[in-house]
């Protein structure tokens, strides 16, 4: 009697495809385990909430007699002092945006990421989405905290401010978007230049130096003065204000489109080069 032998075929090896959700999960792990990420997001929160808690009492004391009077722009004043930390916070977010991508180039980790997803754009998109979502959430919490702190001081002084009005909520959202969009500009510069120092320098130059040069030249060149509302800092500042109605001032949605255009101008060439250049 002959024994019958049975041959078993090996089970097929299944490999996980680098889908966008999986890439995002990987990028989330990277982001939350970086010490610089924790410190930068903590600084964003502290700058917004801290500046509001620090400056609001002085402003309220100075205008206490006028805040309860009709016709006083208490809402504008509250937004100005409550969101006084936005400018520094957006710089911190921008620096983090640069480091999130340039850090992987400097350590060589980006090569491993691109090996797992050879098309590259999936990795970059996942990294940008995770960074944007986390920055938005942290900044939204910080802005809400800052405005609630300021609202408490103004209410104690007798100022009647409807924090649920469309005008107020739009300005609060604008403050969050300003920080997020500057962060994306930083991400774009980091991807484009692949160097932390160069990316930060380019971001600071565009956001802070260009408006200074523009204001100096605007006194002698009218066309430069006409361009000033379209600078990132000017358009961003318009996002979290209620507007003055001055001639040439952008509407909220116009300012938002300007900021999105700046992000696209930086990110699009960065993405094109990221596909062509060696990592």
Automatic annotation (TrEMBL):
> Which keywords label this protein?
Membrane, Transmembrane, Transmembrane helix
The answer to whether the entry has keyword Membrane is yes
Q: Where are the transmembrane segments?
A: 38-58, 78-101, 121-149, 169-193, 200-221, 252-274
| Protein name (Swiss-Prot/TrEMBL) | ABC transporter permease
Q: Which organism is it from?
A: Clavibacter lycopersici
Q: Which taxonomic lineage does the organism of this UniProt entry have?
A: Bacteria, Bacillati, Actinomycetota, Actinomycetes, Micrococcales
């Amino acid at each position: 009697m002959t024994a019958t032998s049975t041959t078993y075929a090996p089970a097929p090896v299944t490999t996980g495809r680098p889908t966008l959700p999986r890439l995002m999960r990987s990028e989330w792990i990277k982001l939350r385990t970086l010490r610089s990420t924790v410190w930068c997001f903590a600084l964003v929160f502290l700058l917004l909430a801290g500046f509001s808690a620090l400056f609001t009492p002085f402003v309220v004391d100075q205008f206490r007699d006028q805040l309860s009077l009709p016709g006083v722009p208490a809402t504008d004043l509250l937004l100005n002092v409550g969101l006084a930390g936005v400018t520094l916070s957006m710089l911190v977010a921008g620096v983090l945006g640069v480091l999130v991508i340039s850090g992987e180039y400097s350590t060589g980790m980006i090569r491993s990421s691109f090996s797992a997803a050879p098309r590259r754009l999936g990795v970059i998109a996942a990294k940008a989405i995770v960074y944007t979502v986390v920055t938005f959430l942290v900044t939204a919490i910080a802005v809400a905290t800052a405005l609630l702190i300021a609202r408490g001081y103004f209410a104690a002084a007798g100022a009647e401010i409807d924090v649920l009005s469309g005008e107020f909520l739009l300005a609060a959202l604008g403050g969050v978007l300003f920080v997020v969009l500057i962060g994306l500009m930083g991400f774009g510069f980091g991807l484009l230049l692949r160097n932390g120092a160069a990316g930060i320098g380019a971001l600071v130059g565009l956001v802070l130096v260009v408006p200074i040069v523009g204001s100096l030249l605007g006194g002698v060149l009218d066309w430069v003065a006409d361009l000033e509302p379209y600078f990132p800092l000017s358009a961003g500042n318009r996002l979290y204000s209620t507007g003055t109605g001055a001639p040439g001032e952008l509407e909220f949605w116009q300012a938002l489109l300007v900021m999105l255009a700046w992000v696209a101008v930086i990110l699009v060439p960065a993405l094109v080069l990221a596909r062509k250049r060696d990592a």
